[in-house]
Amino acid sequence: MPSWPTETKYISHSTLRIDAVPKLTGQARYSSDIQAQGWLYGMILRSKWPAAKITSINLEKARAIPGIKAALTVQDGERTVRYYGEELAAVAGTTKQACLDALRAIEVEAKPLPHVVHETEAMKDDSPKVWEGSPNASNPKPSDKGDVDKAFAECAAVIEGFYTTPVQLHHPMETHGSTVSWTDDGVTAWVSTQGVFGSRDALAGGLKLEQSKVRVLSEFMGGGFGAKFPPVLESVLAARLSREVKAPVRLMLTRFDEALAVGNRPSSFQKIKLGASADGTLQAFEFDNYGTGGLGSGGTTAGGGSGVNLPQPYIYRVPNTRVKQTVVAINAGGARAFRAPAHPPASYGMECAMDDLAVKLGMDPVELRLKNDPSEIRQREYKIGIERFGWKEKYKKPGSSPGVVKVGVGCGGSAWSGGGGARTTQGEAQINPDGSIEVRLGVQDLGTGTKTVIAVVAAEILGLKPEQITVKIGDTRYPPGPGSGGSMTCPSVAPTVFDVCTKTLEQLQTQAGIADARGENWFSACKKLGVNPLVVHGQWQPGLSDSRACGVQFAEVEVDTETGMVTVKKITCIQDGGLIVNKNTFESQVNGGIIMGMGYALYEERIMDDLSGVVLNPNFETYKVSGIGDIPEIDITLLNMPERGVIGIGEPVTIPTASAIANAVANAIGVRVSSLPITPAKVLAALGKVPPSTVSKT
Amino acid sequence: MKAFEYATALSTESAQQLVADSGQFIAGGNDLLGRLKEYLADAKIVVNIKSLPGLDKIETGSQTWSIGALVTVAQIENHAEIKKVFPGLHTAAAEVGSQQIRNVATVGGNLSQHSRCWYYRHRDTLCLKKHGDLCYARHGENRYHSLFTGNTCISPVVSNLATAFAALDATAIVLREGKETRMSMAELYANAWENPTAHNSLKPGDLILKIEIPTARTHSAYMQVSEKHEFDWALVSCAAAGKVSGGKISQPRVALGCISPVPHQVKAANDFLEGKTLDEATVSQAADMILKDAQPLEHNGYKVPIAHALIRRTLLQLKG
Q1: What DSSP character marks residue A222?
Q2: Which CATH architecture describes the domain A34-113+172-258?
Q3: Hey, what CATH topology would domain B58-113+155-317 get?
């Protein structure tokens, strides 16, 4: 079994991103920057109806717009659309404005159907049906473990709460899309994707081409958070347009489109009952949850991957549990994987319940967690966090902070079952006689620093500097890498590069007849290769990576009890990631996760309009994400545990932030705001300060 | 957006001639370009007014200051004298949008911007303000909407500067059909109170030239509460101004934004405050008077306590 070196120069130290300069200077070419020879703009026409029978789509007037080279329908014949924003047609043209004009010129005949865009409405018997003939809500049976009723009867303290979380949108900085060129030789697609090989296979399938005829590239991409896995309808449409116009077509979605049709995190409406014995040992848990993942859930597909079902009672050991989860379909865009699917809402519900129970028991919330959390790693992390955060000095009885602006603290823990490596990952290195080296993997960098991780591991094994390694990724002509999901990229890539470079070094040493070709011997060894470069393949090896990262976070907030404004002052994060490959990019991921978690806590929410069925906030003006002025001091402590191997942490670091902030708000004001996002309106409502409406709706 | 002609005007006369009945003026363009792109505005011609002479000046005076309509919001924010003489105006400017927006946004544009109601701004909802049949917000998502209105539309005025100018009793000098017309902030928005399709009282072709601010009110303050800490619209904004000496206020004025189609002012409250010592009880009583007739909708009642807090805080801040 291979093992990581124990004395390291780069691994577990901090190396700046090797592509920082091209990214900061704008030289890095993202999918949306690709300008293939003779390219045209592509654009998608979307349904204006939340539900309708589409009877005809006439493209003639669109085709007549000057500059328009092609127009096509997504699907022939009559069809039913089930959400505002569903794709109907696409056009390609020489300018953006020509395409915009063409979209307005397309004539769509439709018979509007009744729609429903809110979960609670959709669950009613007389609600319009998203799927004809099927109920909107699944009808699950509760699943029991132990004797819940008996256990509750014997509890010393029981709390009941109703905790809700909104639909959250991914909104990566770069929108979805691609440039696709379809020629007689096949398809070349520059896709903003979380999986170049997955995109290749999806495109080949969608276009009925051999996989070998499709090449997907993604050297730089601007984030995905789970929303950029194939299938990729927008890339298929770009390809169909490209075939028709015989030119490359760049089809990038707009920010408006991003809010409609390319995924979201499902909502949750969690009714939780939690009980413990007098010493705080959890005894019973009852959970009744419903939520929506948009149109792709409900009766026909109940439980089918919509991500509505939550892993409750999350990280806690409870002997008696009853869990019931209902999946509700509405007329809205479907859910997709979203950074730690199902975990942030589960954490929010459960950690709020834990704090409410701690209050009822008169117990310190951290003590209650230490009592019921079976993870030894999180136990360690809480103990470190108590010191670093100053928990014992800062934690006061809920609502006891004096004055108008009250301070409060809270905490929460995270677990992530993923983060392990994909055993199919392969890579190769090419050593040139002049000593230059290229490491190639068919993986992509979501923005997490994958290229830097590859350079760090290669440099460590070969005794070189990271900047000496030319890293090539994002191309299906390279050896296959995994999709970037489940926090798997780093634990897939690092062991693969370890293997590639170990084998490369062995072969170089054999060929050059040098016992140790590393470091200062490198160039003389490479010179002995003669004229031909050395290319060596390698693959993922077991024993170098693991899964199941554990983390805890603490939050300190200020709440203005007259205006409802919440200000996060500090987040302290203690995070395990096994062997830390590169501290710098690890910490960047923690920062990003916390900032996103803050948005989930305080700002983010997709807002649907009942009457029109549209998304009301399809922009950053009213879909609010954390900005630089909102971001608090972030204190990070990393547990380096080389013995566990490399573990991905992109997802777990965002899980407990909202929970910790929500608990800190409750601690500050002495009442629970039981709904995310925690807006001034909800804080004031929880404090009983909001007057009732005096106006009738008409 | 639809195609339009573009022209740069070098005099106010030619600007008005060019724009005629079917054109739009452009200065910073923050509001207009958004509306053109979403097909909310029609323009046969877009007339660039950035080169009009003399409208980009800040002129000081012992009785009155004058701020040209083409002065940028960033210029107000960065003006050391304004910060001293009209601190409320300074803060209001500093809270507008982002630095990038403030760099190009002009005083005239900030005052004449349209409603931010998300039904008005949405390309596929034909609301009352767009000459449709109903106010969607009244039936739907009205968390950002008005507590006061004189008509069926409930979208509020969101201009920070209008709120600050109202408290300072500033006057807009508007060129209308070749003549200079003086309008108080109340008059500048009065039509929006009456008419659901109006955003302000400006008619097509009207051009704001400058704002005159009397220096009589030596103390002023502005505060807003937003959901985010920066680059966010106010949920409620509030400005207060007056002359404070020995703890007593004279010529007091309080104005609020984002809760009415006009800067919300209650004369009775201003009268009540005249000559009073600014203490907790007094400012709280003034706040009660200002918000007495508020009509909370289903989702915006929270604006009442925020407004109440901001009235009290801005008034108390006047004490220095």
Answers
A1: -
A2: 2-Layer Sandwich (3.30)
A3: Enolase-like; domain 1 (3.30.390)
* pLDDT at res. B145: 98
* Token pair belonging to A379: 């136990």
Pick left, alpha or beta for residue B196 (phi over 0 → left; psi -120 to 50 → alpha; otherwise beta).
alpha
Select from 3.30.43.10, 1.10.760.10, 3.40.50.10540, 3.40.1110.10 the CATH code of B1-52: 3.30.43.10
Residue B88 backbone dihedrals phi, psi, to 5 degrees: -65, -40
**pLDDT at residue A307, as a whole number:** 80
Which among B136, B229, B305 is the nearest to A690, CB-wise?
B305
d(CA A570, CA A391): 12
Per-chain mean pLDDT for chain B: 97
Q: What is the pTM of this model?
A: 0.97
Q: How far is A610 from chain B (nearest CA, A)?
A: 7
What long-range pairs does A104-108 form, CB within 8 A, spacing at least 24? A105/A61, A105/A62, A105/A64, A105/A65, A106/A45, A106/A57, A106/A58, A106/A59, A106/A61, A106/A62, A106/A71, A107/A56, A107/A57, A107/A58, A107/A61, A108/A45, A108/A48, A108/A54, A108/A56, A108/A57, A108/A58
Which helix (H) or strand (E) element contains residue A61?
Answer: helix A60-63
In angstroms, the first-to-last Cα distance of chain A is 73
Nearest-Cα residue of chain B relative to residue A616? B118
> Residue A298: which pLDDT band, with cuts at 50, 70 and 90?
low
Q: CB–CB of A198/A229 below 8 Å?
A: yes
Q: State whether A695 and B225 contact (CB < 8 Å).
A: no
Scanning every residue of chain B, which has its alpha carbon at the shortest distance from the alpha carbon of A679? B227
The domain spans of chain A are: 20-29+421-539, 34-113+172-258
CB spacing of A562 vs B118 below 8 angstroms: no
Give the H or E element holding residue A471: strand A469-472
ipTM above 0.95, yes or no: yes
Residue A324 is encoded by which pair of tokens? 């019931």
Domains A20-29+421-539 and A34-113+172-258 equal at CATH topology level: yes
What confidence tens digit (pLDDT) does each residue in A311-327 have?
999 999 999 999 999 99
Asked if A282 and A106 touch (Cβ cutoff 8 Å), the reply is no
What is the rounded CA–CA span in Å between residue B76 and residue B79?
5
Q: Calculate what percentage of chain B has a pLDDT beyond 70.
A: 100
Query: DSSP string of A178-209?
Result: EEEEEETTEEEEEE--S-HHHHHHHHHHHHT-
**What residue spans define the domains of chain B?**
1-52, 58-113+155-317
CB contact under 8 A, A628 and B122: no
Cβ distance of A627 and B116 shorter than 8 Å: no
- pLDDT, tens only, A372-399: 999 999 999 999 999 999 999 999 999 9
Domain range A20-29+421-539, CATH class: alpha beta
**Whether residue A296 has pLDDT greater than 90:** no
Q: What is the pLDDT of residue A78?
A: 96
Across the interface, whether the CB atoms of A628 and B295 are under 8 A apart is answered no
A to B CB pairs, distance under 8 Å: 112
Kindly compute the dihedral angle of the four CA atoms of residues A114, A119, A120, A126, in this order, to the nearest 10 degrees: 30
Q: Is B110 helix (H, G, I), strand (E, B) or coil?
A: helix
- Please state the three-class secondary structure of A537-570 as a single string: EEECCCCCECCCCEEEEEEEEEEECCCCCEEEEE
Q: Residue B282: how many CB atoms within 10 A of its CB?
A: 17
Concatenating the DSSP letter of every residue in A663-675 gives: HHHHHHHSS---B
- Those residues of chain A whose CB sits closer than 8 Å to some CB in chain B are 48, 84, 97, 100, 560, 562-565, 567, 602-603, 607, 609-612, 614, 616-617, 621-622, 624, 626-630, 679-681, 684-685, 689-695, 697-698
Whether residue A419 is predicted with pLDDT greater than 90 in this model: the reply is: no
